[in-house]
Automatic annotation (TrEMBL):
It comes from the Eukaryota. Residues 113-403 form the G-protein coupled receptors family 1 profile domain. Signal peptide: none annotated. It comes from Elysia crispata. The chain crosses the membrane at residues 12-30, 98-122, 129-150, 170-196, 217-234, 277-298, 344-368, 380-404. GO terms for cellular component: membrane. This is G-protein coupled receptors family 1 profile domain-containing protein. The keyword Membrane applies.
Length: 430
């Protein structure tokens, strides 16, 4: 049931993404207006604010207010009514409520659930590689959710509540956003490592039985964190806050600056093509392959075990003068094996739901000029990106359900920790 719900969510978002792609293609064909040039507005801030921005799975709106003041919307708007609604007063309130209230609320739920996961796994004991992997995955998911909330709250304070302190909040959100993507990519790599580990232990147990030890798992996970940090270091170090003149408020404020403009644009395009498109696709392919191999090997082992059991039963009953075909019925898979297959399939489905639509959105952003930040379809791009962020947040928060449903040790430790908290709360009330 849960797997079917996830599949329906994924298919629904894919339809929305394909609809946006088709709409943009039709608009590019129909429109005779040249896309408005924003280079003059963006040159003032010495940093790329084109559609190749560095927002966490969505547009960051960097310099949105300044850019709109010095540029005019293209005439002859050919957008469909659904897109035009998003630019109306009601549509903006709908987008802001969805992006700055609903998504952060689900992110907060993900933070609480991952704190619970970390507490339960540590309480149960980090005795094997699997428990260390789950703790690391929960940690990276929690940090991603924290930076996602921080990014949206900063933008809400400036764009939604019209707060403009000495520090420009939207620019601070721009600097914070790569940290969220850093931990999101770490979660992808840890998920792939967990799938490969489980697949190898099931497919070739004699070879990998003692390969994925506790020590090797810790070394691999630490290496993933270090390599990801080194990869993102140029992006993290290229931007900083500096005192700059804000033309809109006619005063000096702390705003974002970059040490190398060309490097910023190159890194932004590289991040979009590699981290947001290529990495999720490769990870999805590896996980789906691992699930197929695991399912095949477990079924093969179950059939072999059943044939051996049936042969032994026939020999025993033949010796007693009974028919050996009475014991030929039954399931080919044990309950434990079915639970393993189902849990891995659900984890794979959660991962695909959280990453596959994102690849389509980013591919459309690269393919069409009018679909992205500061374009004719900016509102549609923003809404679909926020919808994608919501699904990612839901997939992160749903991990606790998978652990609780298919991990007996987790379920027992969870209630042990929860009962201790209730007792402590009761003592304080008294």
């Amino acid at each position: 049931m849960f797997f079917g719900i996830l599949a329906n969510q994924c298919s629904g978002l894919l339809i929305v993404s394909l609809y946006s792609l088709t709409t943009v293609a039709m608009t590019v064909q129909w429109s005779t207006e040249e896309p408005h040039n924003m280079s003059n507005a963006l040159h003032v801030s010495e940093v790329s604010t084109s559609r190749y921005d560095l927002g966490p799975m969505s547009s960051t709106r960097l310099y949105q207010q300044e850019a709109r003041e010095v540029t005019k919307a293209p005439s002859g708007d050919t957008r469909v009514l659904e897109v035009q609604f998003l630019d109306t007063h009601r549509g903006k309130w709908f987008r802001y409520s969805f992006s700055y209230m609903l998504v952060p609320a689900v992110n907060l739920l993900g933070i609480l659930s991952n704190i619970s996961n970390i507490t339960v796994f540590i309480k149960a004991g980090l005795k094997d590689g699997a428990s260390v992997i789950f703790v690391s995955l929960s940690l990276s998911d929690m940090l991603y959710s924290c930076f996602s909330i921080m990014n949206r709250v900063l933008r809400l304070l400036e764009y939604g509540l019209n707060q403009h302190p000495q520090l420009k909040l939207s620019h601070l959100a721009f600097i914070v956003s790569p940290y969220g993507r850093l931990f999101f990519d770490i979660s992808i790599l840890i998920t792939v490592f967990a799938g490969v580990q489980k697949c190898a232990c099931v497919a070739i147990p004699l070879t990998f039985r003692h390969f994925f030890t506790f020590k090797k798992s810790v070394v691999t996970l630490v290496s993933i964190f270090i390599c990801a940090l080194v990869y993102y270091l140029p992006q993290l170090s290229n931007y900083y806050m500096a005192a700059r003149f804000d033309r809109r408020f006619n005063r000096t404020r702390l705003m974002v600056a970059t040490g190398n403009y060309r490097m910023a644009v190159t890194l932004s395009r590289l991040s979009k093509s590699v981290n947001r498109i290529s990495l999720p696709i490769v990870a999805e392919g590896i996980l789906i392959f691992c699930v197929c191999v695991m399912t095949y090997k477990l079924r093969q082992a179950a059939v072999t075990r059943k044939s051996m059991t049936s042969a032994l039963a026939q020999d025993e009953k033949a010796a007693d003068g009974k028919d050996g075909n009475d014991n030929a019925t039954g399931s080919n898979l044990s309950k434990k094996e079915l639970r393993v297959i189902r849990s891995v399939n659900i984890i794979c489905a959660v991962f695909v739901v959280g990453t596959a639509p994102r690849c389509i959105i980013e591919a459309c952003d690269l393919a069409f000029k009018d679909f992205g930040d500061f374009s004719a379809y900016e509102s549609l791009y923003s809404f679909i990106s926020s919808l994608q962020d919501l699904i990612i947040a839901l997939s992160i928060a749903a991990n606790i359900v998978v652990y609780y449903k298919f991990n007996t040790k987790y379920r027992e430790t969870f209630w042990e920790v929860f009962s201790c908290l209730l007792k402590e709360t009761g003592k304080h009330k008294k």
